[in-house]
Design brief:
The protein has 180 residues and is α+β, with helices and mostly antiparallel strands. The chain is built from 3 helices and 8 strands; from the N terminus they run αααββββββββ.
Amino acid sequence: MGSDKPTPPEIPEPRRTPWRDSADLGEMKFHYQRAEREAMHHRVWEPPTGGFFRRNRALSLVILDVSIVVILFLIYLFFLRPLEGEYRVGDYRFRLEAFVFEEELLLAADVRAPSRAERQPVMTFSAAGEVIQDLAPRSGGQRRIGVRLPLAVLSADGTISVTLEIEGESRTVNHRALPE
């Protein structure tokens, strides 16, 4: 009667590809047109649109960062940093100037009071054995103390030690005298 064996599946014919000829599957054809290939890749160069910084975003961010740092440095340099020769004692600021003039040392101290000072304490200014006691300036005011000293009080490196004491707080600084 018949055999119980299953029949094998049918193998489909290979599909035709555009580059193969239907007559001979072993032979291949190649389609090439130089003009078509060159037209596909050929583009006319056009200059980029927009400004230089729009095309290079990273460079613009770096320039922006550097300019912000420079602006902050200039603000500190001209407005926020203390001046040379300017010191603090508590809430008071004092500025020293020392000049050599005709075998003498001229020493001047400007003391500025804070704007919220409630009273005038006694301040003591001393330099090379000279001691001057005076009232501190009033709220927001300024007082100048001047002293003439012999040139011999300067140290070898041209500095003089000055002490200012206000309300129990004192500050001693070595200040360089400007030459004649």
